[in-house]
Amino acid sequence: MVSARCKMAVKEALKSLGLHFIVVDLGEVEVMENLSPEQREELKIALLGSGLELMDDKRAVLIEKIKNAVVGMVHHTDEIMKVNFSEFLSEKLNHDYTYLANLFSEVQGTTIEQFIISHKIERIKELIIYGELNITEIAWKMNYSSVAHLSNQFKKVTGLSPSHFKQLKEKRRSPIEEI
Question: Which terminus of the chain is more solvent-facing, meaning fewer CB atoms within 10 Å of its CB: N or C?
């Protein structure tokens, strides 16, 4: 789950099956009942109907937690990171970053760094389109060391400079779920 809509879909699926939830958060659900294998299968089917999946594999759950932590930090917070992403993920998930990075690369076929960069670029596109901040302010907000660093990374990923992107109305952002 990477959005509020996903959380709503999960809550609806649980309610439709008569299950009571304690927590429905990004990537996690805690229900009051102990699920029978039949209830588990019904929940799995209900979630698939919304484009979501029930994960039992601990590695898949950890991958989802990594993704949710990145999405949360890049898209859903305005606080400036005081540590780098590797430290942030290690502390948040209570695992060594090397283990997280190797697992993520093995399962996803891309690095955590590339995943982070993809999400940062999408967030930058969003901020550029909104037009409330200039490039210098966006670079600071997104924790880049300089405008040049942001511009170089943006151009490498999109093929456009941030200012050229701003001028193009046809170039649309990608949904978080498709990154």
Answer: C
pLDDT digits (tens, 9 = 90+) for 36-52: 888 888 888 888 888 88
Domain ranges of the chain: 4-54, 59-178
Q: Looking at the structure, give the CATH architecture of the domain made up of residues 59-178.
A: Orthogonal Bundle (1.10)
With the C-alpha atoms ordered 138, 1, 8, 177, is the resulting torsion angle positive or negative? positive
128 to 18, 56, 159, 169, 172: CA distances (angstroms): 44, 39, 16, 11, 12
Give residue 171's identity as a one-letter amino acid code: K
**0.70 cut: is pTM over it?**
no
Q: For residues 7 and 15, what is the distance between their CA atoms, to the nearest angstrom?
A: 12
* Cβ proximity of 47 and 10 under 8 Å: yes
Tokens of 18: 């008569």
Angle (nearest 5°) at CA 158 between 101 and 83: 40
Write the pLDDT tens digit of every residue in 69-127. Answer: 999 889 887 777 667 889 999 999 999 999 999 999 998 999 999 999 999 999 999 99
CA distance 86 to 84: 6
Helix ranges (H only) for the chain are 4-16, 37-49, 58-75, 85-93, 97-108, 112-130, 135-141, 147-158, 162-167
